[in-house]
Specification:
This protein is an all-alpha fold and about 300 residues long. The chain contains 14 helices and 2 strands. Helix 5 packs antiparallel against helix 6 and helix 8 runs antiparallel to helix 12. The relative contact order is 0.14.
Length: about 300
């Protein structure tokens, strides 16, 4: 795959995201494999070479941090790392130690880091039951499609916030599906469901940032990550398909009383994901239209349940 032009700092920012993904040694084998596969397959040329060097231990966090020269880039690197570490809704002790080390290496003050922490928290830590109620079982398919279209639209936006919002929206969708079948869910139980199905939450966040970085995004100005619109054939299709597949897998899982095992869930997820990939082109006009209605305030309102999906 050809690599579009990248900002000079993009490869180092990608490296920081990958270091953040591996900061917690407690990740499942499935998720570690997904991240390693992502790193090995990213783009081509210089980007994939950097990824391989990271996996082989030839690039250090010191190297990556030192190569990020601009203040905007350093803040962006820390913000993305925080988002990767907080993908599951909390930051482990190992991840916090990594973030503290990263902050120092990026020469960010405590107040700057706290501001960025709060920005990520405002998306990642919104209560699952905020705003929207559970959905009737008969209406689940329509709701899942709306979430898939929304998340496909978020991938067309350049803001880091848009990428960070995808996972919380997926978790809110699963929460609503579980509630419809009589299950009181929290983030831990949803993470357990996703892990059992072999779906890595951290790897999804890393992949979303990576697509933006290798697609020509790399400066943060005025709170926005600016650059070309993400490649519709990759980012939008991926998030549409993963959201669609997760939703329908959750519907089957909770309708069956949470009795499906890991092998069953993994076997069911792949065809659902393929089905969704084939549907993306059909719904692309709606996805583009949805993207045109979204701004920072609108994204936050959706995550916080103040606006219906």
């Amino acid at each position: 795959m050809l690599v579009p032009e990248t900002h000079p700092e993009s490869e180092s920012l990608l490296a920081i995201c990958l270091f953040a993904a591996f900061a917690d040694g407690d990740k499942s084998d499935d998720e570690r494999t997904q991240i390693e596969t992502l790193a090995a397959e990213l783009g081509g040329g210089d980007v994939s070479a950097v990824s391989r060097r990271i996996l082989m231990g030839r690039v250090s966090l010191d190297d990556a941090a030192a190569a990020v020269q601009s203040r905007e880039g350093r803040m962006l690197g820390y913000e993305m790392a925080r988002a990767v570490c907080e993908a599951g809704g909390s930051v482990s002790a190992a991840e916090q130690a990594f973030l503290n080390e990263l902050r120092a290496k990026l020469a960010l003050g405590e107040s700057e880091a706290k501001t960025l922490d709060d920005e990520v928290d405002s998306v990642a830590l919104v209560p699952l039951d905020a705003g929207e109620p559970a959905v009737a079982v008969a209406d689940q398919s329509g709701m899942i499609l709306r979430y898939a279209i929304l998340n496909g639209a978020l991938e067309l936006l350049p803001e880091t916030l848009a990428t960070m919002a995808i996972l919380p929206l997926q978790m809110k969708m699963v929460w609503r599906i579980g509630m419809a079948h009589g299950f009181e869910l929290d983030r831990s139980s949803i993470k357990e469901f996703l892990a059992t199905a072999g779906i890595g939450i951290g790897s999804q966040v890393v992949e979303g940032f990576a697509r933006k970085l290798i697609g020509g995004f790399g400066k943060k100005l005025g709170g926005k990550l600016i650059g070309r619109i993400a490649n519709e054939a990759t980012g939008s299709a991926f998030s549409f398909a993963s959201t669609y597949a997760i939703g329908h897998l959750a519907a089957k899982y909770y309708a069956g009383g949470r009795k499906l095992g890991a092998a069953d869930l993994k076997a069911m997820y792949a065809p659902l994901n393929r089905e969704a990939g084939q549907l993306h082109g059909k719904y692309l006009p709606e996805i583009r239209q949805r993207a045109g209605t979204l701004d920072t305030a609108g994204i936050l309102n959706l995550v916080r349940g103040k606006t219906a999906v």
